């Protein structure tokens, strides 16, 4: 038989030859399935190329070791891809049980502020408090009511017994004064 005719044989033919003890039949199965199995594992393991190459080899090693378990009438492709899926699952389970590398033990929690952020935030709060002290009690009460407690202008005007326009003008003036006070506080620290 010519080489071209042998290559055209169905995978099931080569699996039967492998089960009959002809190990060279594995080369034909690998020629047919190695690239598709590699691509399958590559997608499944998010591109871990070194691991994927190793697992692809393991799949064909298991195919050789367990070829007697192959049931006639079942598609060879389905059996080989089941071996590949099992290899990927086993790898992911094993990796999940492994301890993370030592450098990750000290890795900061990305959801927690860094220590210097906390110090910086404390400085900003202290500066803001100092700047608020530079406002009149009326200005301070309007700023706190509007920006901290998020009260609407109408409510502030009603609570303080003044016109809404007065509240708006006072808030505008207060913000300008706060900016100036914060700039002065910032400049004195640098």
TrEMBL record:
The keyword Translocase does not apply. It comes from the Bacteria. Residues 30-97 form the RNA polymerase sigma-70 region domain. One of its GO terms (biological process) is DNA-templated transcription initiation. SUPFAM superfamilies: Sigma2 domain of RNA polymerase sigma factors (SSF88946), Sigma3 and sigma4 domains of RNA polymerase sigma factors (SSF88659). Residues 126-178 form the RNA polymerase sigma factor 70 region 4 type domain. GO terms for molecular function: DNA binding; sigma factor activity. Gene3D superfamilies: 1.10.1740.10, Winged helix-like DNA-binding domain superfamily/Winged helix DNA-binding domain (1.10.10.10). Keywords: DNA-binding, Sigma factor, Transcription, Transcription regulation. The keyword Transcription applies. This is RNA polymerase sigma factor. It comes from Mesoterricola silvestris. The lineage of its organism: Bacteria, Pseudomonadati, Acidobacteriota, Holophagae, Holophagales.
């Amino acid at each position: 038989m010519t080489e071209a005719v042998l290559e055209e044989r169905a995978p099931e033919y080569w699996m039967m030859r492998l089960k009959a003890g002809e190990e060279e039949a594995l080369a034909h199965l690998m020629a047919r399935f190695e690239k598709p199995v590699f691509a399958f594992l590559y997608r499944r393991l998010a591109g871990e190329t070194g691991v994927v190459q190793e697992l692809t080899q393991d799949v064909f090693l298991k195919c050789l070791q367990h070829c007697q378990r192959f049931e006639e009438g079942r598609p060879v492709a389905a059996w080989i891809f089941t071996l590949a899926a099992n290899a990927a699952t086993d790898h992911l389970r094993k990796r999940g049980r492994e301890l993370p590398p030592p450098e990750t033990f000290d890795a900061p929690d990305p959801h927690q502020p860094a220590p210097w952020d906390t110090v910086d935030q404390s400085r900003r709060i202290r500066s803001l408090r100092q700047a608020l002290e530079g406002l009149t009690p009326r200005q301070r009460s309007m700023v706190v009511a509007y920006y901290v407690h998020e009260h609407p202008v109408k409510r502030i005007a009603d609570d303080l017994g003044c016109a809404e326009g007065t509240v708006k003008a006072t808030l505008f003036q207060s913000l300008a004064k706060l900016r100036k006070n914060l700039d002065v506080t910032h400049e004195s620290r640098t």
